[in-house]
Amino acid sequence: MPRWSQILASVYDVPVADRNVKPITELMTIASQNAANVSETEAGAAEGEGRGGRFRIWDLHTSLHCSIIGTCLTQGELRRLLRRLKVEGADTAGDHDLHMLGVLLASRPKEGAKLLQKMLDHRHRLAINRFAKAKDEAEVTALWDAGMKDGDIPGAYWALLTHPLSSNQLTRRVFGDVHMLSHLVGATNRADIRRLRELQEQNAALSQRVDVIQRRLRDDVSERDRTIQRLNELLAQKTAEEKRLTARANDAGNFLDVIRELERRLDDEITRRQAAEANLELMAAAYEDATRACNNAVGERDALCRELASVESQIDAVLQPDDEPSFGSIDLSGMTVLYVGGRAKQMPQLRALIERLNGSFRHHDGGMEDSTALLPGLASRADVAVFPVDCVSHNAVAMIKRLCDQFGKPYLPLRTSSVTSLLAALTDMGGEPHTLQ
What we know:
Helix content: 55-70%
Largest sheet: 4 strands, parallel
Strand content: under 5%
Radius of gyration: 35 Å
Mean pLDDT: 79
Structural class: mainly alpha
Order of helices and strands: HHHHHHHHHHHHEHEHEHEH
Number of strands: 4
Number of domains: 3
Distance between the termini: 56 Å
Oligomer: single chain
Strand order of the largest sheet: 2-1-3-4
Shape: flat
């Protein structure tokens, strides 16, 4: 008997004909009513009661299918599965349509859900084996909490939902954790993701320009080779003609006229060759400029990816209870951080971040309003100095570097004046996963 879990209804529970003609608000109402009509007598395994084997995806209530497809599979894996099943439109479907096809497939074992189950089990085999050792629901819960802390959300989520000891109460709690985590990640990383996508688009445009330049270079090289071949042929003709003219050396006047004509034609060919070589040099310079621009874009993209990974590594700390410290992976241990430059409206956020990490925050605006004469005293009392390279004067940067060298203090240049750049820099400086020495 299928395992039901009254958590949230899904719009995919509504018949296709109704979805095509009804507005979204009415569809959600219908879906909610469908979930409310599920009775406790239809439940498969009662709370706290085990069964002989793991649940399969079609044993789970359809309201769980959306979160399973979105969390436990990548879009690429889902598209490959649908291609293997020869689902019409799988090659051209957008991300949402692809997700919808996967959700609809999950409840149909005869139409491909068995292959979907096999792919999920193969992808998360390590997590399934780890959860299989649990002897009761408390151990299953502890494994889920460990997976949340370590960032192994997809594997732990699939292993728990299909575990025979998972009760409806535990399933509801885990579903809520994953649901809220998606909101938190989206709110935290929206700007960085948008910037990353912009960089990816710029990278694609630059790559396209590089391809065009490379094609032009190949054409120019081919034209140069043809010109060289032409010149060699002309040179061979001139050599033959010179031999013929040698036989007519007795006629000095005709000989000099032939020489002048040959020199004129040779000068014309040299001029055309020099023009071709100059054009080739211009194309080579343009190619080098495009390559540098592409490398700069790739470097900025990689820096954003590192900052994004650093922020995501702190998400598990945000999800801990209020009585436990946030950002548990970083502890400044009373260090004094001197922030030079930046934007005044961001200082309260940066101060709150440093103090939340058990540190002390000092700020100097780099000479806009604060006197630069204050910098030596601030640098001598600080343990580390940081400055955003996009919002600080050159004089302030040179002065703080010189002061840090004098006092033997480290300094960190930040890519931008954002909170994520400061957090990523402090994480990289820590070296250890839980302390910042």
